[in-house]
Amino acid sequence: MIECQNLMKIYKIDEEHEVIALQGLDLQVEKGEMMGIIGSSGSGKSTLLNMLGGLDRPSAGKLTVDGKDLLRISDRELVKYKLETVGFVWQNNARNLIPYLSAIENVEMPMLIKGRHKRSRAQELLEMVGMGHRLKSKLGSLSGGELQRVAIAISLANQPSLILADEPTGSVDGETADVILDVFHRLNRELGVTIVIVTHDTQLTNKMDRVVAIRDGKTSSEIVRLSHFLKEEQEADEDQQAETHVELAVLDSARRIQVPEEYLEAIGITNTNKVRMEVENGKIMIKNPSE
Ligand SMILES: Nc1ncnc2c1ncn2[C@@H]1O[C@H](COP(=O)(O)OP(=O)(O)OP(=O)(O)O)[C@@H](O)[C@H]1O
Ligand SMILES: [Mg+2]
Question: What number does the ligand 1 atom closest to the CA of 11 have?
Fold first, then answer.
């Protein structure tokens, strides 16, 4: 579904200043996958989502989504792409909800824009996200979690093949976050829609099969559910409380990896940019050169 290679995004702030928000990011997402993206503030998560959603254009590299080349796509095709291929869910609903319309009218809005409007489908979507009992409610009367579920129904209005969610549980409590995640899981299972969720929430990432970590505009590591590697009997041997996920470093297209700052500090690498690297007993060792 998503093929992203050496993706760059440079924002020009003024004549002399620019920010490199993505610096050679690699990412692959399979059709029908539901995965997470984490990373500290400013690491480039929203920038990546904006590129994937066609809200902004990448500066260089390769990016195809659902077979469409988002670096070469024409402006006209991009409008169609945003309307038909992707659906967005934001932390702050104000961006895609109209407060003086009812829940069902809000879901119908993107259908109207596309010119294919069906009340029954809007109702179906609201039922799917567990809001079937509040079809006619004005949005002002709904709670944060309920609004978020309406926002998910809206994102599905035009049957997108990809849902992009930026901090969808950022402004709700833990229990509501669980409900919202369950909704995403159901949509993923029942509609087969590919879902990419940006989150800070470890409660959410624990429930996903794959989470990609971004550091300084590059994919640095992937947290993958252990069962993807282990045979079932091996897994059964483990303590019930054993870790369910394992973190893997990502090799980029030039075979580089990022070494976490805390690992370097742990071996005393603070004011040098050199380490010793050797293969020892089938392992690659990174050592302090003064060792
Ligand atoms: N439109 C823009 N113009 C200039 N710089 C931008 C723009 N959008 C993002 N940036 C910069 O790009 C970098 C990445 O920003 P981005 O919003 O992608 O981070 P993020 O990982 O989503 O952070 P957060 O977790 O705080 O939402 C930051 O340094 C940010 O200041
Ligand atoms: Mg962000």
Answer: 4
